[in-house]
Amino acid sequence: MIDFTLTENDEARLAHLYAQGEYIRQFVRDADENEAELPPEVLPGAEDFLKTLERPPAPGPEDTQGPAMMTLSAIAQYWGDYSLRLHREGGGGLGNAALSAAGTDEQKAKWGGLLLSMAITEPGCGSDPSRVETTAVLDEDTDEWVINGEKIFVTTGIRAEGVVLWATIDKSAGRAGIKSFLVEKGTPGFEVPGKEKKLGIRCDDTAAYVFRDCRIPRENLLGLDESIPKQSSGGFRGVMKTFNMTRPMTAAMGLGPAKAALDFTREQLEEAGVDLAYGGGTAQQSAAAQAFMRLEAIYEASELATLRATWLAGTGQPNNMESSVCKAHAGSAVRAITQGCVDILGPMGISREHLLEKWMRDCRITDIYEGTGEIQRLIMARGLLDYTRQDLK
Amino acid sequence: MISFGLTEEQELIRDTLKEFASEAMRPIARDCDENGEIPQDFLDTIWELGLTSTQIPSEYGGGGEERSTVTNAIVLEELGYGDVALALAATAPNAFVNAILDHGTEDQKKALLPLFTTDEFHTASLAVLEHGPLADPAQPSTKAEPKGDDFVLSGRKSWVVLGDRASHFLVVARNNGGIDAFIVPADADGLTVGEPEKNVGLRGLTTVTLDLERVEVGPEARLGGSDGCDVRAILDNARGANSAILVGACRGILEFCVPYTKERIAFDEPISKKQSIAFRMAEMHMETEAMRWMTWKTASHAGQGHPQTTRQAHLTKQYVAEKSVWIADNGIQIFGGHGFIREYPVEMWFRNVRTLSVLEAMAGL
Ligand SMILES: Cc1cc2nc3c(=O)[nH]c(=O)nc-3n(C[C@H](O)[C@H](O)[C@H](O)COP(=O)(O)OP(=O)(O)OC[C@H]3O[C@@H](n4cnc5c(N)ncnc54)[C@H](O)[C@@H]3O)c2cc1C
After folding, report:
1. Over A58-98, what HEC string results?
2. Domain at B8-116, CATH homologous superfamily
3. Which site among B1, B130, B310, B334 would you substitute to test the A interface, given the most A Cβ atoms closer than 10 Å to its Cβ?
């Protein structure tokens, strides 16, 4: 049954996350300004602080669960900060999602416990991964794959204990020749030159990877399927499937700082005596109130589109279109919201004394990774028009 | 618990209404617009569907079916998909009936609800909007002055849906600093129902201006009795309903654009293969979806009396008004010159969406 009410327990579980976010805020500015350092695995005082919080009860059958709750939780968590955490959780990297989607049971058992990054992007290609140039060549004598190539912009690239990477086993086969491989850190020939310097999400360790004659066992090919299907995207599609949760989660992550920006701006407006008169017409509202409510509406729309995509996933229904809908929507929304809040607050918005400017920088990534806004529009348009990727590109 | 799941019953209702919209509304929409009227036949057919009477409790002679604001939002989306003007005509009685159901005293329900349970189309209208550049539905200039136990209503209301055939009006007026709604019979002394208004869109739908010159009504006319009622809740509900209709209209516009763009050739290929067209349609789809979920949330909150209902309805109205106009406007652009010509429906859809998006209190959930 259609319902948008959070249960008391839902609220309590989210409040627990928002409280942690409040605590984290005191460390955020320093971490942002000291980009070169990796933030600590556990923030100072985290243990004691956590003890002061009441543990929320486990969810019952009436409560919001699964992917929809993950969405709301991600918003709450990223509301505190995009990349700082009280505790760095292990697992849960993008590569882990790929492993669970494409790996065999044995592979999942073997590597599931590692924090895995995902490396698709290369200096020469991002949006169009069919142009991947990193190669994997089978050495029949040793039963090993030999990897050569360069990957960039790898999220959690420094901390990751292994990587799921895309490489081609047959360039002439195009997309069908691209397979995913698991490479553990420490494998000879696998180098990590360093951490990128970025506009935002600076605590995130975004890294470049270099592979020079890097040898991995034959069974490190995810899914173990070495065949090259004709006229199909084969293994490629297997990996693409993982995006049906990661796209909505990327949307939710961006909505966190957007919500933070709205909350901050609302507080400031109220303090300044601006009346947000819901229920009336727009003509008699102040310009600031109007502008603010418009941003709030955009936020609402985005959050709901994201919940809808994840609710579908949670009920086992296809959500390819909806994942792009929410990712594209949130990508535009968080830009409009945080930049709009800066406009409303004026000079306060750009001051590094406050976090608003940082939220604006942080959530700018939402419309870029996991497929840019343009790529999401491509996916949606193909869906609407019943077009293949050849028909519209 | 967050859920977007339709019940089987809701799916059935949606499918039935969708068919109705395609078969009974689309074919007559253009004529209604050109002739400036809605055929009685259509109103009779709608009445037979029982959109209004079935949800009136049986003690007042209705069908006694449970009323779900969310189901009603789903129904209105389908009607809006058929035609906005016809959808508003179909749901006009509901806006009034719902206000009575939600806020009326027992006596008010007994007196008014049975009117809507007979075999013939019957309507009464909300009279909320007023003329003027700073019109605000929540701050009417129409006023109610107490006179003993009675009230004297003075002011002017505009865009009163089907006001030419309404038996009663629910007049929203300022009363001692607060706002109240008053049930005024169409034949009340001092009340003048004006000529049909001339609007850019919804031309088939008659809207009128009401002049209230010291119209005296008794205490029983005040909706909710001596305590009055929360008029804002009526506006919230109507905002959800308006939005639902606009969602349906926008869905229809996009659905009409897609096949056209695949066939229309320019510079050696279908225009659908140009990103500027394809991406715009992707955004039209994206916004229609977002609008729908906002509408559902408003409907769900309104049905539950959720404390955030007014805020939710406000944000939804604001978002849907902006995006629906953007979608309808792009509907024309995608058809180029043909979008400007009245042979195609996109210009009419633009006018209709443009019109409803600035109006309030036209429909009910
Ligand atoms: C902080 C950060 C973290 C990242 N993490 C990861 C990671 O963990 N793993 C990983 O593999 N990658 C990661 N990426 C890479 C990211 O996914 C890519 O940057 C992104 O997909 C865009 O690719 P690109 O940068 O090569 O841009 P390009 O593909 O060069 O695109 C440039 C512009 O062209 C547009 N464009 C491209 N193709 C089309 C088209 N067909 N139609 C219309 N417009 C088009 C794009 O939308 C964009 O606006 C990360 C990037 C950043 C910045």
Report:
1. CCCCCCCCHHHHHHHHHHHHHHHCCCCCCECCCCCCHHHHH
2. Acyl-CoA dehydrogenase/oxidase, N-terminal domain (1.10.540.10)
3. B1
Q: Which of B2, B139, B285 sits opposite A3 (nearest CB)?
A: B2
* A387 contacts on B by Cβ (under 8 Å): 272
Q: What distance in Å separates the CA atoms of residue A334 and residue A367, rounded to the nearest whole number?
A: 8
How do residues B222-251 score in pLDDT, each as one tens digit? 999 999 999 999 999 999 999 999 999 999
What's the sign of the alpha-carbon dihedral A143, A149, A155, A157?
positive
Name which of B249, B275, B309 is nearest B25 in CA terms.
B249
**DSSP 8-class letter at A125:** B
ipTM of the complex: 0.95
- If you average pLDDT over residues A203-215, what whole number do you get? 96
Options 3.30.70.100, 3.90.45.10, 3.40.630.10, 2.40.110.10; CATH for B125-227 is: 2.40.110.10
Question: Which residues does B197 contact at the CB level (< 8 Å), separation at least 6?
Answer: B158, B159, B207, B208, B209
For B105, the token pair is 């005293």
Whether A303 is a known active-site residue: answer no
Nearest CA in chain B to A379: B282
Task: Please count the residues of chain A.
Answer: 393
Range list of β-strands (E), chain B = 123-127, 143-147, 150-161, 166-175, 178-185, 191-196, 207-217, 265-266, 269-270
CATH topology of domain B231-357: Butyryl-CoA Dehydrogenase, subunit A; domain 3 (1.20.140)
Mean pLDDT of the region B103-125: 96
Secondary structure string (H, E, C) spanning A4-38: CCCCHHHHHHHHHHHHHHHHHHHHHHHHHHCCCCC
Nearest residue, CB atoms, B282 vs list A5, A72, A384 = A384
* Residues in A touching B360 (Cβ below 8 Å): 281
Concatenating the DSSP letter of every residue in A320-378 gives HHHHHHHHHHHHHHHHHHHHHHHHHHTHHHH-TTSSHHHHHHHGGGGGTSSS-HHHHHH
Contact by Cβ (8 Å): A71, A306: yes
How many residues are given for chain B? 365
Phi–psi pair at A228, nearest 5 degrees: -115, 100
Q: Decide if B8-116 and B125-227 have a common fold.
A: no
- Residue B147 in tokens: 């006179």
A371 Cα to the center of ligand 1, angstroms: 6
What's chain A's average pLDDT? 93
Q: What is the model's pLDDT at position A239?
A: 47
List the structure tokens of A229. Answer: 């299907």
pTM for the model stands at 0.95
Query: What number does the ligand 1 atom closest to the CA of A368 have?
Result: 20
* pLDDT tens column, A324-353: 999 999 999 999 999 999 999 999 999 999
A378 C-beta closer than 6 A to ligand 1 = yes
| Domains annotated on chain A, with CATH | 8-80 (no CATH), 103-232 (2.40.110.10), 243-392 (1.20.140.10)
- Closest among A308, A343, A342, A345 to A324, alpha carbons compared: A308
- Show the tokens assigned to B154: 């003075």
**Average of pLDDT values for B272-281?**
98
Sequence spans of domains, chain B: 8-116, 125-227, 231-357
Among chain A residues, the shortest Cα distance to B305 is held by: A5
Q: Is A242 in the pocket of ligand 1 (CB under 6 A)?
A: no
Please tell me the distance from the alpha carbon of residue B280 to that of residue B330, in angstroms, as a whole number: 8
Dihedral, B178, B179, B183, B185 alpha carbons, nearest 10: 110
Distance from the B196 Cα atom to the nearest Cα atom in chain A, whole angstroms: 24
- Best residue of A304, A308, A325 to probe chain B, by most B CBs closer than 10 Å: A304
Q: B82 near B248, Cβ under 8 Å?
A: yes
Residues of chain B with Cβ-Cβ distance to A295 below 8 Å are none
